[in-house]
Amino acid sequence: MKKCILFLVLASAQLIPEAALAQQAPAADQNFAYLVTFGKKAERSWGDDDFVQIFFFSVPQVCNQAVYLRVYDPDVGGKVDENRGGFNTKTKFTVYGGTGAHSDPAARKHEPVGNYKSGIQLATKTFDGEATWDEKWYTFGPFSPIEGELQPEFGGYIFKIVIEGIEGDDGNLYKMFLSSKKEENVDMEGGNSFTYEFCLRVPDNAGTVCHIYPFVSSRVIAVKTSIFDYDSEGFIRTVSVAKKGDVFRPGGDGNWVEHTHVIVEDEYNTSLDIQFVKQAAVKNNNIAVYITNQYGDLLPFYTVPIGGVPRYKYKIGIKAGK
Predict the structure, then answer these.
(1) What is the DSSP string of 118-133?
(2) Which terminus of the chain, N or C, has fewer Cβ atoms within 10 Å?
(3) Residue 18 clears pLDDT 80, i.e. is over it
(4) DSSP letter string, 243-294
(5) Would you say residue 100 lies in a domain?
(6) What string of DSSP letters covers 178-240?
């Protein structure tokens, strides 16, 4: 099997890439419990603002082997999912590639409006409460890398998966994985996954810290983090190579709250680590998150942070004696 290698040329050498790649969404080191999509009849105050989730997977341009998109627990039933008075929900997963899958502007908005299902449909399946795939992996594929949309600036060929809660009001909790194998999760070297809006389940226990990693280019002077339904359970801390922690408390049960982080020169061409620090034990807390720059453009955030997880660089001043 030939390895797929992606060379990322970064304008900054302040970050060291992580040795281990992980194409699970959410990634293990992000520490979120699951992705979540509710049925379209759910209350938005339960944490899903629009009942649609859009994710992208990048495959290196030099890759010449088959790829697979795998989903853990795609059904809506059993102990993983959120039961709102009897399971009655159906969730539709659809994979897209080809021209427009990612480049169409509607695919990169935080609201599912317009032509967000752009591209060529490659595969689709609807899951209900039937237990066949409860706590098991379902595999879409194989796909040839060239069935994706070529977007070199985003890592190569891009595949899109759209997850829709088409019936009911329960919460479907699941994970996804970009794999080089059909029957098991095997990282694809140089692969990555990203989105422009997450809807996630926060772990129940107090003291947990979760992470998202937006990449900041040299044209960004400020980022605004928008968070839906955080339930006042803790605080948000932004860590970068230049700042140890920009902290705010979002609150906002059933509402959107916003916080702006001003970018300094040392943060150009690096990833930020936006940390969700949980201080209270709150069960079944689902949140939605998106991030924009000063122009209102959404920033992608990656499961494998571009350049690696940022580490604050201490600056020690030495004053010469007389």
Answers:
(1) -SEEEEEEEE-S-GGG
(2) C
(3) no
(4) -S-EEE----TTSEEEEEEE--GGGTTEE-EEEEEE-S--SSEEEEEEEEET
(5) yes
(6) EESSSSS----TT-EEEESEEEEEEPSSTT-EEEE-BEE-TT-SEEEEEEE--TTSEEEEEE-
Q: Tell me how far apart the alpha carbons of residues 260 and 246 are, in angstroms, rounded to a whole number.
A: 10
In a domain, 9, yes or no: no
- And the tokens for 114? 């317009």
Evaluate whether 258 touches 171 at the Cβ level (below 8 Å): no
Question: 131-155 burial by CB neighbour count: b if 16+ within 10 A, else e?
Answer: eebbeebbbbbebbbebbbebeebb
pLDDT in tens, 198-249: 999 999 999 999 999 999 999 999 999 999 988 878 899 999 999 988 998 8
Q: What is the domain extent for residue 138?
A: 24-302
Q: Which pLDDT value is given to residue 3?
A: 40
Say which amino acid occupies 240.
Answer: S
Average pLDDT, the chain: 89
% of the chain exceeding 70 in pLDDT: 89
Q: Are 161 and 82 in contact (CB under 8 A)?
A: no
The pLDDT assigned to 16 comes to: 30
**pLDDT, tens digit (0-9, with 9 covering 90-100), for 165-198:** 999 999 999 999 999 999 999 998 899 999 999 9
Here the tokens at position 4 are 């797929």
In a domain, 37, yes or no: yes
Distance CA 310, CA 295 (A): 24
**Is residue 53 within a helix (H) or strand (E), and if so which, with residue range?**
strand 52-59
CB 26 within 8 A of CB 303: yes
- Beta pairing, strands 222-228 & 156-167: unpaired
Band of residue 13 on the pLDDT scale cut at 50, 70, 90? very low
Residue 191 domain-assigned (yes or no): yes
The span from the CA of 5 to the CA of 155, in Å, is 10
What pTM was computed for the model?
A: 0.89
